[in-house]
Write a structure and sequence with these properties.
Elements: E1 15-20, E2 23-28, H1 38-52, E3 59-62, H2 65-76, H3 81-85, H4 90-102, E4 108-111, H5 121-135, E5 144-145, E6 158-160, E7 164-166, H6 170-184, H7 207-210, H8 215-225, H9 232-238, H10 256-262, H11 267-287, H12 292-303, H13 336-365
Parallel strand pairs: 2-5, 3-4
Antiparallel strand pairs: 1-2, 6-7
Helix pairs in contact: 1-4, 2-4, 8-13, 11-12, 11-13
């Protein structure tokens, strides 16, 4: 088999070879199109071998252990319908089982290990058919395309113009289709995808998420991660009710990343928090008597926490506003406890800064929010609570 691209619908070339006392056959699974797999190849080889077998004294050797076990089990104790329905390439499984079970003297299926130094006749024959199938990919004339087993398909089967009849897991197929569609979308931006393994793995501190004063910080992080912050670009893309450009005069689109990392309107706020982070990190390192080279390494990351820096952040972009910090791989001079303290310090500063920037942004964009007079009628016996004009 010549594998295609990792995408489920990629073009691939699958051939098989069979050798018997009466001759050999090399065929292709071109009629299965992009749905052909190694399992189809092994099963079709066994089907041809079973058709060529003349008596019960024959033995069919295959290097696919799972196929041999499944078919032998079905001959001893027929599989229930639900067992067949979960098998990939089940139409070929049914065809092979039907051939063997309807024969008065069925041949014996035996497993032979592939790619060994064994000099036994089955091992040498297996090596020959593997080489024949492999070499057929380079021939000018393609091997004969064998017919697909449509007569043993499920009563209802999914059909694709490129993969033909689909007999694999439907849920996996749909997942692949949706993933490919998302990646093929011209608006898809891998840099916008948050891959947590690229960032620091220390568990964040609990108190910013269980105490009320930090609730707004947690809420901003939640909305930022789910792309629900109503920046100008989001409003333009989803509602078409605003210009996508930065409201503060920057010559770029107003995205979450721009507001939190690049916008000059909040540069002073970022610089102030950056200095606080550096001071707090320096205190922790000095108290632990960390060597100078290690101290400089951590302080460099602290200084670049709120800016895009390829030497500090994965994918060359700061993601502090999503509640992540750069990966901390402490040298041997830094204890795990110290690394955890630094990670917590950076995390708290990051979510505080994000909350401050977003809070300021909302007050500037919607200055009337929260300031409208609350007019409501009180019962007669409580009207004295109204302030007198």
């Amino acid at each position: 088999m010549v594998p295609g691209h990792i995408h489920f619908d990629s073009v691939r070339s699958v051939t098989f070879a069979v050798t018997a006392a009466s001759g050999s056959l090399v065929g292709s699974l071109d009629n299965y199109a992009n749905g052909a797999t190694i399992l189809h190849r092994e099963l079709y080889s066994l089907i041809i071998s079973a058709l060529l077998a003349h008596s019960g004294d024959s033995t069919i050797h295959s290097d696919h252990l799972n196929v041999v076990r499944t078919i032998n089990s079905s001959l001893v104790s027929p599989l229930l319908p639900h067992s067949w329905s979960t098998l990939p390439a089940r139409s070929l499984y049914r065809w092979l089982s039907s051939i063997l079970s309807s024969s008065q003297n069925p041949p014996t299926l035996s497993h032979i290990k592939a790619h060994t130094t064994s000099s036994s006749l089955p091992a040498q024959a297996n090596a020959i058919v593997d080489a024949s199938a492999r070499d057929s990919h380079n021939q000018l004339i393609r091997p004969y395309p064998v017919p697909s087993a449509t007569f043993t398909l499920d009563t209802f089967s999914i059909y694709s113009s490129t993969s033909k009849f689909v007999e694999s897991s439907i849920s996996s197929l749909l997942t692949h289709i949706l993933s490919h569609s998302a990646a093929a979308d011209p608006t898809f931006k891998p840099r916008s995808t948050l891959a947590l393994p690229l960032y620091d793995s220390h568990a964040p501190p609990e108190h910013p998420y269980v105490r009320t004063p930090y609730a707004f910080s947690a809420l901003v992080q939640l909305y930022a991660r789910s792309r629900q912050l109503d920046t100008a670009s989001v409003c333009f893309t989803r509602l078409r009710n605003a210009s996508p450009w930065c409201r503060f005069g920057c010559e770029c689109v107003e995205t979450s990343h721009h507001l939190f990392v690049e916008c000059r309107r909040f540069a002073e706020t970022r610089n102030r928090l950056s200095q606080e982070v550096c001071d707090a990190t320096s205190v922790l390192l000095n108290e632990a008597k960390t060597p100078v080279p290690t101290t400089e390494l951590y302080l460099h990351s602290a200084r670049r926490l709120f800016v895009d820096d390829a030497s500090v952040w994965p994918v060359h972009a700061s993601r502090y506003y999503l509640g992540t910090v750069p990966a901390l791989n402490p040298p041997s001079q830094v204890s795990t406890v110290l690394a955890t303290k630094i990670a917590h310090t950076w995390h708290i500063a990051s979510i505080r800064l994000a909350a401050q920037i977003w809070g300021t942004y909302r007050r500037i964009v919607n200055p009337s929010v929260g300031k409208a007079p609350r007019a409501f009628d009180l019962p007669t016996h409580l009207q004295h609570l109204h302030p007198r004009s």
